[in-house]
Write a structure and sequence with these properties.
About 65% of the residues lie in helices and about 10% in strands. It is built from 53 helices and 21 strands.
């Protein structure tokens, strides 16, 4: 009745009805108290009677109900002590209601049933999970972390100590962790009930068969006393059942609380790491001091380590508590005999710590080798085209394989240590029980009986687990401590100094929005730079000097510019720059490395005019890009001043030399962080010549671009980057040589329509770096740089007057412009657009993902109509073929040996415990035997027990080592096969597959196979064998047990299937949700200068927070699903114990079962609950982890290029270098249109041929045919008469040299980059560098040829990287050389020098040059003009120029 009344109160939301409940409970309590008083007075009983204890418990429950109703009335009716509502209560779409349901539903996770119901019917999607409760969000926890960190910094400053992140974590989650500790303590205390009850239970079974009437004296009391109740076997079985279930409920809820706190901490750390990353100095990344991979580890590995440390916090005291309590009970059971056995534990713990320490060192070695391997693999994949055309697959395969073999060697050491740890944890209980039981009779004079034996065995089994996990817990805490120190170091790393750029810092809008309880868009307000007096300047300087280590590090990060007193008083007393100046640098010395003594930019004095075009020119490496970086504040200012006009917005539009695009739609890349103005957007698109590209894209400007979308060409990417800068409302636009990636025709259109027609016309300040001097006449100011100095600056005429060489080059450019003005090019431009459309259309159609998305646009498009590329997601269970394939990789003999060893070990373990049962049962009948007979019996059973036990332990060692070694063999073979196959896949595969997805196979999937898959499969089989053992033992003891347990087994399998379907999908969602976090993080790191220049940190921060929240949401559901399963499996385990005890005790009651078997049955049943949990979870984990093996298998089975040829040409081939194309037709796929048609051409040996044509004409495809990067569908290509499709790819490509448009370098020294096969001498390398005009740069370096190139060549400019590729080609002694727009990023003077070198060095070689600048090939022997995939012209330059109607002549007049 009270329950129904309470239901009505809640349903109708009428809290005043609680007065009725209060009155009801008061009356019930009074009546029950009166009844108890009368009954106690009449019977004279006390607490020793069980009925009295029950009545006291009922009264206590009623009193609690009264307190509850008083609390409800105070809260709901009188509104007393109201607290702030929980943040999750405001989420309308929230489906995670753990904190909003009843206590029973929350404790048993009953509310979570809807997830499994839905997941059983169909695969779960992210939308099914709803939104994340606010207290789990990254923004909420970031605010809490920052608040706690602020308090800790204040404390550290007061006490002059270091900042401790541990104190921050304590402030974040101390209270919930304390509540979880109470639950853990309760659970561990209840865990002692089982072993104690087994002693009394076996005693009860013994009494049933005993003839001694005094075994349990009869009290003849009218009421059951507490002692009689606890001596009754059936009551004990019920107690074991109840306490087991309560223990597991407490334990699972403890796990839930600590996991939730770990999720809080993980979300906070990821958010804070991203915040810090947005402030990192560029030098920190480019110098290698802190690589992108290491920073990503701060986002991935370190939060995971901290989460694990928080999850295992209570093990610090729980393990000693479990061990101490168990030792006391063992001493109570065995007396002094326990001490001998327990000494083994004393020896074992240091041994395990020692092995764990060695294992930790090995793991560190594995991680470092893995980092090197992944870094190298990523580099190879990024430059896979260069690897292929130079036939370097074997070089890099061997290099990576050497690292991998070292990594596997360390893993084998780790596997041996793991096997030894597994051996010790299996041997420990056996040796302890053997010593204890052997010495029991000797030391105590008593005979071993079943109650002593099996209660002791249960205790030893219980103590084995905490001792076993000590190394793991220590490992988690060591990893957590290391991650804490790494994070502390990272959070204090060198940041960009706002004073170096002269602009105000971007304020953190997100933090203020949270404080105010609202979220707003990014608010970009003009900067008003604060003017500092000399005294306030010195005061600020002194405030930075504090005593703590943290402050010292922070002081290093916030260096004060080295002004002289005269400079500071002169420069900083001025209120503002005059309106005609946008920015001013005075006596500026800049460097990338803060510790460098020699500046990169020296004595910079420059004034950038407001609303004008400033052009920066100079040779390669002269410091043009560095000057732009100095203006942006990306470099460290050693001296001098920089100031921006107060009236200039701090937001600067920046277009870097290498276009930086996001994996978003083209529209989002252009509008970036601004609202879309349709009119302005269309004008910008037209001015950047992007409309033809948009018309071809499958979804127009809503199509995805970037790595995961359509792979745009370099020029297209640069135009999108420029469109972003032009569309922005920034008053200052900085363009770092964007025109070099464009054809001159397109570049001229972009310059006149976008730069001049929009930026300059709108009176925006434009700073442009360019090698194309024909545009000097349009500049209001020109800055000429050489070797880090500004040699001259002023108007174009002034600069030309002071630099005659520059003036001559400019004059040549002007002559081209005059010729252009006399010739019409509208028709040509229209033709170029049509060719560009055809090229992009072919690209879109040839990409299978884009083709599929276009066909399925209606089904896959979101509400905006935009197709989104999702990471692949498997559905359903893994095919058995994958399991067999993995076993084949492990080698079937090893699989058979390991499984046989595990079966034998399980059988021996059962036999050992049956032997113990016989031994203890004999002890019951040996009380009247003589001492010699007892000693003989004891000796007999000790020998048998020892043999069986040690054999079982030995087999466990064999199985563990064999499984670990065999899985590592499988990992090694899988990695080798995958690496070899991936490196030999066609280039089209890499065009259509995101590099991140391929790297994920070598990192995440390979790590899963290396470390997790084998262990999971082993423990799944161990759990299965232990569960089967429990059933077998109980079936042997009491066959009737099978009848009762059969429904439990059926229910278990139903629960397993019910759980696995949902769990697998949740784990897949969790895995998929992590990738976008790291993708955006990597994008941000790659484009930090751009993000900071646009001042859109808040936008990126909010987007990352959304992605973190999605990851936390899926992880939260997954962890709750595990707790849901744990509660139910624990209940089934408790039912299993109940059935085993009841059946064994019932059979023992009729006298047909020895008491020892009763103890054996219940002991096995007690362990079944744990193994049931492991079996289901490992089954689920095994399927998920096998999915990683399935994905690796797909890469291994993918169709590779035909590397073997049917013919082997002579070793001297090619001797001349003549090339013949005979009736060639080319298409990317059978269903696609031709990209080259009827190509018939012959290049003579030693001939220099320039290949020209507009975008999409087929120039690159023509030379790709030589390298067989694409295959012709018709015709024959031959070199010196040898048909190239009949010879092996390695031989073919090694006989050709190429200088690519996109320069590719690998991390390593200069020597390795130029001569990866180590065939050339140092003198030959230096000679090649001299010819490539880059020797002087390396000569000035202390390391010379050992100069280390950073990842991707990041410490060299684009022009320098291109010169390095030229030097690499000079070193190759090949008869055919291909130059694919190889000088597009270098200045005209250097280009002219190199063209002379090409004619000299490659005098006897066949040279095919694809040229952007048509004028650079007019001195070649012949010119091949392509258009629309066909040959339009092929003749000498003189003949083509003499014909004014020729395409080449018109292109030359147009400036090409």
């Amino acid at each position: 009745m009270a329950t129904y009344y309470y239901h009505i109160l809640e349903a109708r939301k009428k809290p005043r009805m609680a007065f009725g409940l209060l009155l009801y409970w008061v009356l019930v309590t009074a009546c029950e108290a009166y009844r108890m008083t009368v009954w106690v007075q009449s019977t004279k009983i006390d607490f020793t009677v069980i009925r009295f204890d029950v009545m006291v418990l009922v009264l206590f429950s009623y009193a609690m109900y009264i307190c509850l109703e008083l609390f409800v009335i105070a809260k709901k009716v009188f509104r007393c002590c109201l607290s702030i509502p929980k943040p999750n209560s405001v989420k309308p779409n929230m489906k995670y209601h753990h904190d909003n349901v009843s206590l029973f539903s929350s404790a048993t996770f009953l509310w979570f049933n809807w997830v499994f119901n839905l997941g059983y019917r169909r695969p779960l999607e992210m939308d099914d999970l709803g939104c994340l409760p606010k207290q789990f969000t990254s923004k909420f926890n970031r605010h809490r972390f920052n608040k706690a960190l602020k308090q800790e910094k204040a404390r550290a400053e007061r006490h002059k100590t270091q900042v401790s992140l541990y104190r921050v974590f304590f402030r974040l989650c101390s209270k919930p962790i304390f509540y979880a500790g109470v639950l853990r303590f309760s659970a561990d205390t209840l865990g002692f009930v089982g072993p104690i009850a087994i002693n009394a239970l076996v005693n009860y079974a013994t009494s049933l068969q005993s003839d001694d009437p005094n075994f349990y004296p009869d009290t003849h009391s009218a009421y059951v006393t507490l002692t009689e109740f606890l001596q009754n076997g059936f009551a004990l079985i019920f107690i074991i059942f109840v306490t087991s279930f309560l223990r597991f409920v407490c334990l699972q809820n403890h796990y839930y609380i600590v996991i939730v706190q770990s999720l809080y901490a993980k979300a906070a750390i990821q958010a804070v790491v991203y915040d810090k990353s947005l402030c990192l100095a560029s030098w920190t990344l480019s110098s290698g001091e802190m690589t992108a991979g290491a920073i990503i580890n701060h986002m991935s590995t370190d939060p995971e380590n901290l989460a694990n440390m928080i999850e295992y916090t209570h093990y610090v005291w729980a393990i000693p508590y479990q061990i101490g309590g168990t030792l006391l009970l063992l001493y109570y059971n065995l007396s002094t005999a326990a001490l001998a056995g327990l000494s083994i534990f004393g020896l074992l713990v240091p041994l395990q710590f020692g092995m764990a320490s060695l294992l930790s060192k090995v793991e560190k070695n594995i991680l470092s080798l893995s980092d090197v391997r992944l870094k190298r693999t990523n580099e190879i994949l990024q430059g896979i085209k260069m690897v292929k055309v130079q036939a370097l697959e074997d070089v890099f395969f061997k290099y990576i394989n050497v690292i991998r073999r070292k990594e596997i060697g360390q893993m084998i050491k780790a596997a041996i240590f793991v096997g030894l740890l597994y051996f010790t944890q299996n041997a420990c209980p056996v040796v302890v029980s053997l010593l204890s039981f052997s010495l029991y009779s000797v030391l105590t004079g008593n005979i071993l009986t079943p109650n002593i034996a099996f209660s002791t065995l249960a205790l030893i089994n219980q103590i084995a687990l905490p001792i076993t996990i000590i190394p793991m817990v220590v490992s988690f805490f060591v990893s957590g401590h290391i991650s804490t120190q790494r994070l502390r170091k990272f959070l204090l790393a060198k940041e960009i100094n706002p004073e170096d750029g002269g602009r105000a810092l971007k304020h953190d809008d997100d933090e203020d929005d949270f404080e105010n309880g609202k979220e707003t868009c990014v608010d970009e307000t003009p900067s008003t730079m604060e003017v500092m007096s000399e005294s306030s300047f010195q005061q600020a300087r002194h405030q930075r000097v504090i005593a703590s280590e943290d402050a010292a590090l922070l002081m290093a990060n916030q260096e004060i510019p080295n002004y002289t007193k005269e400079e500071s008083s002169r420069e900083r007393t001025q209120s503002n720059l005059p309106p005609e100046l946008a920015t001013k640098i005075t006596y500026g010395d800049y460097t990338w490395d803060p510790s460098a003594s020699t500046p990169v930019l020296c004595d910079i004095n420059v004034q950038i005019p407001t609303g004008k075009l400033t052009l920066i020119v100079g040779k390669v490496g002269s410091g043009k890009s560095s000057l732009l970086s100095a203006c942006l504040g990306e470099m460290t200012r050693k001296s001098g001043t920089i100031r921006w006009n107060n009236h200039v917005s701090p937001k600067i539009a920046y277009c870097p030399q290498k276009a930086w695009l996001l994996n978003r739609s083209l529209e989002k890349n252009v509008t970036f962080n601004q609202e879309k103005d349709e009119t302005r957007y269309r004008e910008v698109i037209d001015s950047c010549a992007l409309q033809p590209d948009i018309d071809i894209l499958p979804d127009g400007d809503q199509s995805m671009i970037g790595e995961k979308g359509i792979n745009l060409s370099g020029g297209q990417k640069q135009r999108v980057s420029m469109a972003r800068a032009i569309y922005s409302d920034s008053e200052v636009v900085i363009l770092d040589d964007p025109l070099s990636a464009l054809d001159v025709h397109v570049g001229r259109h972009v310059f006149h329509e976008a730069i001049m027609g929009r930026l300059v016309k709108e009176s925006r300040t434009v700073i442009l770096v360019s090698h194309q001097l024909q545009y000097m006449q349009y500049a209001d100011k020109v800055i000429n740089m050489t070797a880090g100095f500004i040699t001259c600056q002023g108007t174009p005429e002034e600069v030309a007057k002071s630099d005659p060489e520059l003036a001559e080059t400019w004059k040549q450019a002007l002559e081209h412009i005059e010729e252009v003005s006399k010739s019409g090019t509208d028709e040509e431009e229209e033709e170029s657009v049509e060719e560009e459309r055809r090229h992009l259309a072919a690209l879109c159609i040839s990409n299978p993902e884009i083709r599929h998305a276009k066909d399925e646009k209606v089904e896959n498009a979101d509400t905006t109509g935009r197709i989104s590329w999702k990471e692949e997601r498997e559905m359903g269970k893994i095919s058995y073929a994958v399991y067999f394939w993995y076993a084949q990789m492990m080698k079937w003999p090893l699989v058979f040996i390991s499984m046989t060893a595990m079966l034998i070990q399980s059988a021996l373990s059962i036999a050992t415990n049956f032997w113990l049962s016989e031994w203890s049962s004999v002890g019951l009948n040996a009380s009247n035997a003589s001492s010699p007979d007892v000693e003989d019996l004891t000796q007999y059973y000790i020998v048998g027990y020892s043999g069986l036990a040690m054999s079982s332990v030995f087999m466990s060692l064999v199985s563990a080592i064999v499984i670990n070694i065999s899985t590592l063999f499988a990992s090694r073979r899988m990695h080798e096969d995958m690496l070899k196959n991936v490196m030999h896949l066609p280039i089209r595969f890499f065009d259509n597959t995101p590099i991140g997805r391929i790297v994920n196979r070598f990192s995440s999937d390979m790590r899963t196979v290396d470390k997790l898959l084998g262990q999971t499969l082993m423990w799944m089989f161990v759990a299965f064998l232990n569960c089967i053992s429990a059933v077998i033992v109980n079936a042997v003891v009491t066959p009737i047990f099978l009848v009762f347990v059969l429904p439990v087994i059926i229910l278990f399998f139903i629960l397993q299937q019910y759980f696995i379907n949902t769990s697998i999908e949740l784990k897949r969602l969790d895995s998929i949700a992590k990738s976008p976090i790291y993708a955006l993080f990597g994008e941000t790191l790659n484009g930090l200068p751009t993000v900071r220049s646009y001042r859109c940190e808040s936008k990126f921060r909010r987007e990352l927070f959304e992605r973190i929240d999605n990851s936390v949401l899926s992880n939260l559901y997954l962890q709750t699903a595990n707790r849901w399963l744990g509660i139910r499996l624990d209940f089934l385990g408790a039912v299993f114990v109940l059935l085993a005890g009841l059946t064994a005790l019932t059979v023992a009651t009729i006298g047909v079962l020895d008491p020892g078997y009763v103890g054996l049955a219940v002991t096995y049943a007690l362990s079944s609950s744990m193994w049931l949990n492991w079996l289901v979870r490992d089954s689920s984990d095994g399927q998920i982890q096998m999915n990683a093996a399935e994905r690796i298998r797909w890469f291994i089975k993918a169709q590779r290029e035909a590397y073997k040829g049917s013919e082997e040409p002579p070793s001297s081939w090619p001797t001349k270098g003549s090339i013949t194309y005979d009736s060639i037709d080319v298409r990317y796929a059978n269903e696609l249109p031709l990209i080259l048609r009827d190509i018939n051409v012959k290049f003579k040996a030693g001939e220099k041929v320039g290949i020209v044509g507009r975008t999409g004409s087929g120039k690159t495809s023509l030379v790709n045919l030589l390298f067989r990067l694409v295959e012709q569908c018709k015709g024959i290509i031959s070199i010196d008469g040898v048909q190239i499709d009949l010879i092996g790819l390695k031989r073919l490509r090694s006989e050709l040299a190429i200088i690519p448009q996109d320069p590719v370098l690998f991390s390593g020294n200069i020597r390795f980059n130029l001569d990866p096969r180590s065939k050339k001498s140092d003198d030959e390398i230096w000679k090649a560098l001299e010819m490539a005009q880059i020797k002087n740069f390396l000569s000035e370096s202390e390391n010379g040829l050992d100069f280390e190139v950073s990842e991707g060549g990041g410490n060299l400019s684009v022009g320098q990287r291109q010169l390095m590729c030229l030097a690499r080609a000079f070193l190759q002694d090949t008869r055919v050389v291909v130059m694919d727009e190889a000088t597009s990023s270098i200045d005209l003077q250097t280009d002219a020098i190199l063209q002379k070198a090409v004619h000299t060095i490659f005098n006897t070689k066949t040279v095919l040059t694809i040229a952007h600048r048509v004028s650079t090939v007019k001195d070649y022997d012949r010119i091949l003009v392509l258009a629309n995939g066909e040959i339009k012209e092929f003749d000498t330059p003189q003949n083509l120029i003499s014909n004014p109607d020729s395409v080449f002549s018109q292109m030359l007049k147009a400036g090409k």
